[in-house]
Amino acid sequence: MTILLRSIKNFLLITFFNVILITNLNSKEVPDSFADLVERLMPSVVNISATRVVETRAQNPFQFPPGSPFEDLFKEFDKNGAPQKRKTQSLGSGFIIDKSGVIITCNHVIQSAEGIFVKLTNGKEYEAKVLGTDPTSDIAIIKINTKDPLKAVSFADSDKSRVGDWVIAIGNPFGLGGTVTAGIISARNRDISMGKYDDFIQTDAAINQGNSGGPLFNIRGEVIGINSAILSNTGGSVGIGFSIPSNFAKNVFDQITKFGETKRGYIGVRIQEVTKEIADSLGLKNQEGALVSSATTGGPADKAGIQAGDIILEFNNKKVDNMRRLPKIVAETPIGENFEIKVWRDKKILTKQITVTRLEDTSEYKNENNKSSPSSFATIKELGIKIRNINNQDIEKRPNLKNKKGVYIVEINSNSPLSLLPVKEGDVIIAISNIQVSDVKSFDELFKRELKKNLNSILLTLFDTNNQNKFIGVKIK
Predict the structure, then answer these.
(1) Residues 134, 138, 199, 427: which is the catalytic one?
(2) Most exposed residue of 37, 46, 366, 439, measured as fewest CB within 10 angstroms of its CB?
(3) 108: annotated active-site residue
(4) Catalytic member of 212, 237, 246, 416
C-alpha cells in the first residue's frame, strides 16, 4: 500500500512539473525592453528621399467665396505669372532585404521621382536605381551599389501573426531617421478601400509621414509588414496605422526580382458580396462565397462554364469566405495551370476546371494601369490649355476622382478662351458636347471631330475642384 501511494505521488509530481514546463515553453514572455532587438535591427532600416520636379505659379493672396464678383477681377492674377519649376523632396523609409543592396519600400515614396537617395544608419548616402514597382500593391524594389557590408532582414509568416502580438516600427517620420515605436497588432485583414487586394495589418504602433515603406517587426526581429498608410484627420498618428502583410509583399518581391514585373492570376469575373438575403434566396445555408455578376466573354471563367448568378465557394482548394477573399486567392495562383473551382448553382455544388491566365495581359488591367501610370500631356491650342490623364497622385489628393474618367487641366494660358470663365487648373473635363471622354487620346479625337462641324462654341462638362459637375460653353471662333 505504501509503495502504491508513493508511486501515485511521484506520478502526480512528474505530471505537475511537465505541465509547468510546457506552459513556460508555450508562453511568450513580455520583454522588459526592446533595446537589444532594436540595436540589432536598426542597421537594416534606411531613410529614403525622392526628388521630383514640379511646376508652380504665383497664387492669388485674396480668397473670395464662390460666385463673388471679385473672383473674376482677380482671376488674371493667377494667369499672368509664368509657371516656375522647382525641385521637391519626399521622405520615406525602407529596409534591406538582401545583402547585395536590394531594398524594399512603398511605391508612393519613389513614384515619378527623378532621383532616389538612400541613407544608411552609418550616415553614408547612395543613389538608388529602381528594379521594379507594383503600384497595385504599393510596393517598390530599389537597389544601391556599395562594397560596404550590409545587414539584411527576413520576412516573417504574416499568416501566423495574431491580434495582440507585439510589433515594432522603425523608420524616418518627418525626416527624423532611426525613430522606433512599439505597439501591438490591433486587427488583421483590414480593407481600407486602397485597392482590390486590401488585406492590411492594423497596428497602434505610431506611424507618421515618412514611415511609409519602413518595416513592422515582430519581437523575433522578422518583418511582419511594410508600413503603408494611416487613418488620421490631422496627418499625424492617432494610433491607427496599416501595414502590407509580409506574405503578400514577399510574393510581389519574388516576382519583381525574378521577372522584373508582377504576374497575377486572372479568371475574368465581376463579383459582388453575398448578402444574407441573397444566400437565403439561393438556398445557401451560410453567408459565404463571391457572387458572380458577370463573366468576361471568352475569359477563363466563361470557358469553364461559370455563369452570372453562380456563387464561387472554393478556388484551388481554398475556401472563399467572402467576396474580398477571391481576388487575393486568384492573384497568387500560378498562371497557365488548371485548377478546380466549386460553385453554388441551383442549390447544388458544382465542380469546374478553370485555366488561370495573367491579369497584366488583359485589356481591363491595361486600361486601369494607363490611369494610374504617369500619362502623356497634350496641348489643345484652340482652348489654350494643357491636359493629361488622371493619375494616382490626383486620386490620393482627391479621392472623388477614383472612378472618374476624363482629362486633368494642368495649365490654362492667359489667352485661353477659358481664362475668363469659371474654370481652374485642377478641374477635370469629363465630356465634350455631352459625349464622355476617358483620356487624352479620346479627348483629342472628339475635340477635333467637333471642330470639323464649324461650330461657334463647344459645350464642356467639368468635374471641378469642389467635386461638382458643371457645364461651360466655350467660344472657339
Answers:
(1) 138
(2) 366
(3) yes
(4) 212
